[in-house]
Amino acid sequence: MSSIPALPPSYSTEELLPDYRTSLSLERSPAYTELSLTSTRTSSTSTSSDSQPKLIPSGRLSYSSKRLALDLGPRIWAPHLPVYGRNSLIEGHVEIKNFKHVNRVELTLTGAVLSYMTSNGNPTLRSTKVVLNEKSMIWSSKADACSSNQSARTFPFVFALPDYVQGSDDHITTPLPPSASIQTRGSSAHVFYLLRVDMYRTGIHFHDSVQTEVLYLPRTVSNYERPYIPLPGSEKPRRICDAEWRTAEVPRKSISGSPKSVPGLGNVDVHLSLPHKLHYPSGCAIPFAVTLSGSGLSCANIPQLTAGLKLTLIKTSTTIVKGIISKQEIVVSTGQICRIDEDERHWRDSKPGDNSRQVVIRGCLETGTKGKDQSWGVRGHAGVSYQVRVSLAPSAEGSQRRDAVWEHTVSTVSALQIPVSRIKPRAPLSPGLQRRGFTILAASGDATLSNGENNIYTTTVQVKGKDVVLQVDTGSSDTWVYPTASTKDLYTDAFVYQNLPLTLSYGKGQVAGHVSQMTMSFAGYTVQNQSILLIEQEKDMSLIEANLTNGLLGLGFDTLSSIANTVAKNTQQSWGRTLLSNIFTSDPTTPNHIAFRLDRHDDGNNTDVGAFDVGTFAAGFEAVNNTAAIPIFSSSAQQNLYWNVLVDGVTLNGKPQTLKSTVNGGTQTPPAGKVSAVLDTGYSLPQLSPELARSIYSSMGGVLVEDGTNTTYAVPCMAEAQLVFTIGGQTIHIHPLDLTQIQTVSTTKGNNYTMCINAYQPFSSNAGGGEVDYILGDAFLRNVYSVYDYGDFIQGFSGLAQGNPYIKLLPLTDPTAASAEFKTARAASLSAAGMPPQLDPTTVNGTPQAIPGTGGGGSGGGGSSGGSNNGATGLKLGGWVALGAAAVVGLLSSNWV
């Protein structure tokens, strides 16, 4: 078997590399048919005791040991290693010199990404990702028996290099990375490919092998059409169409004093236009156009604005080792202005009567050495990306001060993504984490109803180099950790403020401790003196007790943070800010947003992987940046408390639903016909108005369970509904799998049933403190790619009204495909071995009856449903008992009580 070395093979980086503007990347390598081992250049990694490897310079790429020879043909490039481009064929011959005691000969092509931390120049923590593993049987004694004295034979082989990494995520295709090395402060990463021949011999005879590294250099050389741009002194520029250019607004940064330094800037808009597809060969200039428009433009400030324009192309190298992220940035080039055109009316469409001026600044960005640099990345391990950054920093005449008033970053390749793991509880959870659970009360028999389909989404932060698993929660703002016997040593350096005790409540659950400060790393940033709550006591927090998380990462605004407010109240200082606030304020170049792609949990899987993006967008979802920004709605005119938006409309099976807000907790209420909804990753089951929930599940044939709470519907398991939300102009279809959940129940006589219940639960605004109408949790968010932009930080705090935060949503669910997927997945779950027959929902409030012909057989017909009461309240439902815990809809997040 081939082995992955602890460190990459060494080769000179100063050797002349091939010029990939020629055919190597566009055509396959030349084929050859003749084998010649005369005057060969040999190299061996043989473990044979009588093999003496030799190096004889020659014009062929040939490697030899005593029993084996590997010939890869003529050496046509300067490196002393074989070099291949995109779509190349690695082909050659293997010679078996001696067949004595040989069992088989195998050829293996392996590619790997090796990333590791360094300390004093020495590798420490390592992480390896295999990106390519191809095997070929050259010869086998079982298939081709021969005598031991048979003369040498040669065997041809060929490997076709694939376009993409093998075994990558189903939703993401990762191009095969090039041979490359990255070195940052404290870490390194290497991509290398090994071609290895192994001879396996019978008995106690030595195994023999020959291997060489091969260079994979898929340079970007494909032809491209550069958008038209005139040179200085040339003819008047023609209108440029949208098919050639992608235009984005450059947002204004609120920096104290900056807008006043040059008069009229308050009425100036800035847009950046770049080629529609930023796939450029290195060495070819990227054209750009910056448009200034608005009534604030004048002859006095136009020269100051244009003089303050700066565009840079940034190369970012990233390494990730066990979740520890290191980044290094290098400025590749600075944009050169080619021409400036004033009052160019045909550049962008203007409205009738619009007399505002327009100025278009055109230029080019160089992209480095021709045929050398390239973007690449292997998710979770290493990569190189390029970004175009634009800033406009005008200064008043005679002033030396230049504050960036407008800033924007455009990625030419997807940047950093942080994996988010969703974990399906392995055992029923106790009701201690309920924000609002449900109970069932009826005629006779005590029971509890278990919920095994609630999900928790987690990520990791690093403390003392160790991963700490935290639930990601956009519905709250506090970060807290709960030390256990195995993790308590991580927090020994934390500074605990004994005069700042704090208790946080989550429904029936509660955590208590003291505000503390410690060093914490997340998303490639290390924040010293980060304020957290170090938990000393917890009560009824089952996700902690079930060891599903070590705490919570609050991703809401500072204005909602109990830690920040406690610090401000007692010290009149702002060092209690959230982790994300500290990250964004410390690095102004990082866009102030986070984004989520929450994968749907297929029935039967225990884990799944989504994406948590900081300052960038996940590959394949960049279109979200072209959607409209959805402003935050808050019941308070002074500050934003939650990631709360207005729902413009809801349709059910094509019929519009009446929306009426009951928000009464502040000074502002939603407009007539709209409701407010918080987008909360920490809330598993969405909460709607009782009227809308009743309409949804009645249309599906659901029956309200008579439990006294009016919150639970028993629904036919194969029932569907077309539920559509309209938010910020986006039409969002809800996947049928997100509308109901499968449960199992058992009667007191030991009869088991499968029962489906509602995932969208009735809710009143008063239960949310009068602040919101709906809570759109994970079962909603799985249908969108969601972006949470914190806007500008005012005095270092997020959530203040003038900061202008917003949300963007990219719908992901196709209703036709989702319906087909639902029918297949749900039917498979219901018919799985051991699944009990389905409960007829019409009998839920009386004597329970099974639907004939349902169930997966096996052990589902009798006995208990398993699980434990976990201290759950006894519930009555006819003559049957459901064992387990009541549904955990809220999990850990927010302050909903």
UniProtKB/TrEMBL annotation:
Biased composition (Low complexity): 33-51
GO molecular function per UniProt: aspartic-type endopeptidase activity
Bias kind Gly residues: ranges: 853-867
Chain residue ranges for the region called Disordered: 32-58, 833-867
Domain spans labelled Peptidase A1: 457-798
Annotated signal sequence range: none
InterPro entries in UniProt: Arrestin-like_C, Aspartic_peptidase_A1, Pepsin-like_dom, PEPTIDASE_A1, Peptidase_aspartic_dom_sf
Pfam families according to UniProt: Asp
GO biological process: one example: proteolysis
Family: Belongs to the peptidase A1 family.
PANTHER family with a match to the protein in the record: BETA-SITE APP-CLEAVING ENZYME, ISOFORM A-RELATED, PEPTIDASE A1 DOMAIN-CONTAINING PROTEIN
Protein name, entry field: Peptidase A1 domain-containing protein
Organism per entry: Rhizoctonia solani
Top-level taxonomy: Eukaryota, Fungi, Dikarya, Basidiomycota, Agaricomycotina
